[in-house]
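Re: the request from the purification team.
They wanted to know what the chain is likely to look like in 3D before they choose a buffer screen. I agreed to run a prediction and write the result into the notebook, where they can find it.
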Amino acid sequence: MIAYLALSLLVALATAQHDAPCECAVFININGTDVLLTDLPTEYVNFCDQHEPCQSHCASEFDDLTFGGDLSFETDDGPVGQILCSLLGLPVEDEFVSVYSNLCNTTWEDSGDTTLQPLCCDDSSNYYECPVPTTDMTTDMSTTDLSTPAPVPSTATPTTPEPSTTAASTTPEPSTTTMPTSPVMTSEEPVTF
C-alpha cells in the first residue's frame, strides 16, 4: 500500500510540473509604440516565478530561427529581414527587433536578445540593409610630408582650455520602453522562419 501511495505521489508530481506557460514574441518599437510582429512557440516551465528559464527559452527560440538574430540569414521562406518586413507591413528604418517573454499571462519582459542589425523596410514592405553611416577616415598620403618629424610634446604645465564658442554636442539618452500588457498585434499565427 505504501508503494502504491509513493508511486501515486510521484505521478502527481510529474504531471503537476510544466504547467506555467512561457509565451515568446518578437516586437519592434515604431514611433514609441511596441508592435508585436509574431509569436514564437510557447514553452512550459515548472512555476510562474521562473522568469530566467522562460527568457532563456525565448532567446534560444529566436536565435535558432534567425541564426543568432541575423536579418540577412536565408530561410526556406527568404531572408529573416524580409519575413519581418512582410509581417510588419509598414515602412521602418533603423529599428532593432527584440524578443520578449510573458510568463503565466502577466506582462511582457525583454529577454535581452535583439537582432544583429537594425530592420529597414520600404513602403512596399521590402527588406533592405540599413545604410551604415560612414566617416572619411582616409588620408591622402601623397600630400603628407613624412620627412618632417612629428612635434614633441611640451613639458610645460598644461593650461585649462578656454570654453569653446561652438555648441557642445549632446548625446541623447537611450530610451526605455515599457512593454504594454496588450501589445499591438499584426499577426495571429506564430511564424516559422
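For the purification team: Residues 4-16, 153-188 have pLDDT under 50 and may be disordered.
Please add any questions underneath this entry.
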